[in-house]
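Case study B.
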Amino acid sequence: MKRLIFILSFIFALQSFAGEQLFFQGNSEYANENYSTAISLYDSILTKGLESSELYYNLGNCHYKTQDWANAIWHYKKSLQLEKKENTLHNLELAKLKIIDRIESLPQLFYKKWWNNLTQLFGTKTWQILTLLCIGFVVLLQLLNQYKSLKNKLILNILYPTTVVLLFITHNSHTQNFVKKEGIIFTSTVIVNSAPSINSTNLFSLHSGSKVEVIDEIGDWINIKIANGNSGWISQNSIKEL
Amino acid sequence: MKKLTLILCLFCSALLQAQQLKVAADKNPAIVGEQIVIQYKIDTKGQNFKSPNFKGLKVLSGPNPSTQSSYSFVNGKSQKSSSTTYSFYLKAVKEGTYTISPASITVKGKKIQSKAYSLKAVKGNKKNKAQQKVLSDNLFIKVNVSKRNIVVGEQILVTYKLFTRVDLHNTELSSLPALNGFWAKDLEASSRFKRDVVDGIAYNVATIKKSVLTAQKSGELIIDPMKLKCSIRIQKKRNNRDPFANFFGGGYNVQEEFISSKPIIIKVADLPNPPPNFKGAVGKMSIKSSVDNTSINANDAITYKLTITGTGNIELIEPLDIQFPEDFEVYDPKITDRIFEGGKKRSIKTFEYLLIPRYKGNYSIPSASLVIYNPKKKQYETKKSSKHTLTILASKNNEQETGQASQQQVRTEQKDIHYIFTGGNLQEIKKRAIDQKLFYILFFFPICLLILLGIYNRIVGKTDTSSNDWKNKKANKIALKRLKTAQICINNNDFDGFFEEIEKSLWGYFADKFKVASADLSKETVSTYFKSSAIENAVESKFIALLDECEFARYAPASNKNAQMDAVLSKAKNIIIEVETALK
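Model:
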């Protein structure tokens, strides 16, 4: 058993080493402005089953340089899912300026904004671990309290509400990162229909690079919603889900 | 009377005569293909002339109005007359009889109509045709185009030449060629006639028009024909009977002819894969830059001159993008050009920038680049000007160059994306979160455990001493509440009041606890109630002892009052706690 674990971990280490090699090769190709070669190198890392926010970021940059804005945005978004970085946000903003659609997002109430910012402070996993640690502490202290009266109950009094808040944050973070499906439009022009059929009324059109939220799916059709609150149906193959 | 009538009639007829619109043709019957002039004449001034309908006849020109007025003074009588003639130049294409509908004109508010005119056109005899042929051989416009297959932005030189072997009296441009899709620039053309021999025949040749055309769009562009009205002088046949006329060379007939050039099709191709920084310069050019001074003081002016020389559509070149240093104040360039033959000959265009450096230091102006399509080589060329390095010295005027006032914020313009990350830990895909179900199980499991434990304690742990802790606490609270006023008495050193208070509290507590009426309160009832509630005897005796002590203390003054008070208070507290615990 030990040996098996050792071998498995060795294989993984080997693979990640190979991945790193590819990553550095990609970097040098990028430096030489051979963007398409860099893309294929980076992509081969992804096919090995490895990823990192930096990898997605670099891929986004390559696509940006080859003026493939939709792909660039998709990769930047992917990178942001793993880790929030200043550079990624900056580049994403620039890439968004290049696409055709300029969707004004609905203004959010200040507390909602704060709440979202708080949620996005860490990844879902971090929040989950934090919450579990908190509840562990609470239970531990409570048990201690039953057998030996605690003199200082301040910690418990703080921990109770913290745990509740953390639970909400974790839930929110999970919905935002895993339940809520988002996608980037990859076809150059998509007509958004009012119902999932070609004969239905055309509501508006979207162009490649725009971000949509997937609300529902029926067969090949998906119900999408854009940042300004409009929604409609488009065919599934016109977007690439994040 | 008869005479008068006659005179009046004559007068009227004269009046009528004056207000007639007369129509006349210069020849009737006319010959097919020949030019016919039809004139409408009225002897007064008229307005609002309406052209007739020349069915089947080709109108070459017209209506061409001309007004004549004369003033005569005969035998002391002055006479004024004026007439207006509207002439049409027509051409019959086919033989036959043509009816020209009446024309109309308004004179003094009255509409006057001409008669309908019938014109006969006959086939010309051979001689006439030959004459026509001779004319077209002897008088024609030839269009010269330097190139017929070009690309967008390329220039061609178009020359219109009039070849003639006849005696030209006058020429007049009737319609200018429309140049759709071209940017045209007319060049100076000398209309003086020169002798030129074509195929052994000598012609008088004049360049009527010369222009440089720059193709603006792709496709087949047509240069429309140019129409020219020529007046030809034809010598009259010698009249043997008139020696004077023979002597002076005889008279001339002036014949008017319309000639036009042939339309020309120019094929304009699109530029092959233009590079992104290509701005439409086509031709053969070179670029040069110069700076009048490479080392000056801050706040003094430098002139940066960019010169483009060569052939092509130089005139259409816009100012180039030059990345001047951020600390330079740059003014819009002064553009001067000397274009020869619209760029067909070597021309020059200069952009003169006025720069004012604001801070001292070493700066460099990068080279300006211009992408040109060379139609001869059929490829794009990038021409670069030279790079200039400038040394700016401190300002002479001692302005606060580095002072607070002129301090400059570092400008960060969002122009390009950040560079790639060169490192980073690769990890396996899909390990981004604990499964939400598992998370909830992990979260609620300890809570459930805690709740279960609590329930278990409720049911099983009544006898458990450890679980009695909180009951003690409650008893303690009750005791403290009861003895609150007694505590106040201690603080006030009220000795008598204290013991009274303690007694009262104890009785009160007992009465409340066992629901005894205040009238029944006695030491006997205490023992009976205590016994019925299965309270130990020790507690009962302590309770009664304390009551006794209080009673005693109230009447027997003690030496150390304070110590006694404290002791009694703690005793009372204990007894209440003990009763409370025993009752639970």
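Chain B has a mean pLDDT of 78. The remaining cases will be described in the next quarterly update.
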